Amino acid sequence: NMNILNNTSTASKSTATSSSFHTITTANYRQRLPRDVSDVYIRENVLQLPNKRYKVIFQAYNEDVSSNNTVNVILPESITEIQDEAFQYCKLIKSVTIPNCVTKIGRYAFNHCVNLEFIKLPDNLQEIGDSAFHRCEKLRGVVIPDSVTTLGQYAFGGCGYLESVTLSKSLTSISRYAFHGCNKLQSINIPEGVTS
What we know:
Blueprint: H1 10-15, E1 21-24, E2 39-42, H2 44-47, H3 51-54, E3 71-74, E4 81-82, E5 93-97, E6 104-105, E7 118-120, E8 127-128, E9 141-143, E10 150-151, E11 164-166
């Protein structure tokens, strides 16, 4: 179980003085982002809201993408999992900072985040769920850390601009359609341990 985060992480403190920095709390998570925001920090107690409420965090922000810059999302250091559908259809997200304590990225977690350009997967990640990054159309490269043992169906399906992928050496199987529709991906090295 996650503990309630009482203070922002080190990552957030370093940017907290900038006018372009915004913290999402349980008090303001339904409000639109200010227009000059470029970095968004999400407090852990917001992430603990029941999933249907959690998805509302960015719901209002998706309606008028042209009125906002895309944003960099910073997640708290103490979470261990990104829930199913957590950021699905969040069109404003440009990049995500995921702490190394995260071991699982749920199904459809970043599905259709069409402006997501960069994501560094955490070193202790073990599982990438079905369609976790499906249709992240601007994602160009991804390094799947060696700790990952499970790569779900359509995990990176429809990432049409994905050009480079480094697979985990711990993988023993790659689920079907994991890279379906990645038309710019010309080659990929399959680890020796993969049997299916």
